[in-house]
Amino acid sequence: MFIYIQLRASEKTFSIRRMCAALPVSESGFYKWKRNKDNPKAWQKLLAEIHKILDEDEENTNYGVERMRLALEQRGIKRSYSTVKRAMARGNLLHESNRSPDGLTKADRDAMKPENIIKQDFTAEAPLRKLLTDITQIPCKNAKLYVSPLLDCYNGEVISLVMDTNMKKELCMKTITEAYKKFDIKSGVIIHSDSGSQYTSGKYKKLLGKLHAVQSMSGVGKCWDNSRMESWFATLKKEKIYQIDTTKLSVEEVKTIVWRYTFAYYNTKRVTTVNPGGLPPAVYRERTASVKNAA
């Protein structure tokens, strides 16, 4: 898949035929991947059906894998136990068992560690379908400030930004809930993060499951798996934070600086190489939305 992503990024510069000949991929294989890359996967379609069942009655949230498999079968959707389990795991819908026959507390480690779904493909064909998040810190006069954004891969827009003097899971959860307050985020959105303990916590995973979001996670120690989010942090620090001595400013002062840079400049005024014509993220989103509505 990574080779296909590289080909797609270079197809305006080089001949696809020549690039495929130089790489161990077929030309037909590349075009097939390109046609289908944004189509819903089988597990995404199944997860959407599972969410419909859960939404029918609040008590359905108690369904385990077998009961969900049977509920799907009643609706004419026949899938194996393992297929249903994988889809529920990706949607953070599995119930973690706290008891075992020998009375010891155990955890399903496979279910608790989400897989890397986006696999360094930070492109998106529509807004609010693939989101990235992480935490960075800024030293201040009276404490460290932790910054938690949520970035849309479609246009590079920071759609949510929460800051605090701690980096607990509640900071990450608030980042997500604030985004849902501002935007109409549909079921099945992919939210990608690193493998920090905040993102593997039961409360965070439960929140994503409740919001019908699919969790994707970088491998341990693999910063490139979330490089686009890291790039935004680098831009923030290079263009604003490193130009001032934040250790002489209070947390509240630095909060104001970061907030203004993000929402009054980066999203709305700053020329970006990511979007066509260099349009700022929010401007590009609004332009494409108006074109779509006119059509």
Q: Can you lay out the helices and strands and say which pair or pack?
A:
Layout: H1 2-10, H2 16-22, H3 27-36, H4 42-56, H5 65-74, H6 81-90, H7 109-112, E1 130-133, E2 136-139, E3 144-152, E4 158-164, H8 169-182, E5 190-193, H9 197-200, H10 202-210, E6 214-217, H11 227-239, H12 251-266, H13 281-294
Parallel strand pairs: 1-5, 5-6
Antiparallel strand pairs: 1-3, 2-3, 3-4
Report what the structure shows.
By secondary structure, the chain is of the alpha/beta class. It has 3 domains: 2-36; 42-112, no CATH class; 130-294, Nucleotidyltransferase, domain 5 (2-Layer Sandwich). It contains 13 helices and 6 strands. It has helices spanning 2-10, 16-22, 27-36, 42-56, 65-74, 81-90, 109-112, 169-182, 197-200, 202-210, 227-239, 251-266, 281-294, and strands at residues 130-133, 136-139, 144-152, 158-164, 190-193, 214-217. Strands 1, 2, 3, 4, 5 and 6 form a 6-stranded mixed sheet that branches. Strand 2 and strand 3 (144-152) form a beta hairpin. Helix 4 (42-56) packs across helix 6 (81-90), helix 5 packs across helix 6 and helix 8 (169-182) packs parallel to helix 10. It is globular and about 60 Å long. The protein starts with a helix and ends with a helix. The model is unreliable at 1-10 and 97-111 (pLDDT under 50).
